[in-house]
Amino acid sequence: MASCPECEATIDLEDEDVEEGQLLDCPECGAELEVVNTNPLELDVVATEEEGEENGEGSW
Fold this sequence. Notes:
Mean pLDDT: 83
Helix content: 10-25%
Structural class: mainly beta
CATH architecture: Single Sheet
Number of strands: 5
Distance between the termini: 41 Å
CATH topology: Rubrerythrin, domain 2
Number of helices: 1
Radius of gyration: 13 Å
Shape: globular
Low-confidence stretches: none
Largest sheet: 3 strands, antiparallel
C-alpha cells in the first residue's frame, strides 16, 4: 500500500503487481504517478511538460 504524494490518498496496490518505472493514475486526484521503488512501495508525481513551462523551464 502506498499514498499519493500529491493528495495523500491511500493507493492500495499489491507489491508484486507493480514494477519500478510503471506509470499509474491516482484514483482520487488523477495525478500521473510513477513507481520509483517497489520495496517499500514508493510513488512520485510525474512532471509534465506544461508544469515545466509554468516554472520557466524549457522556455527561452
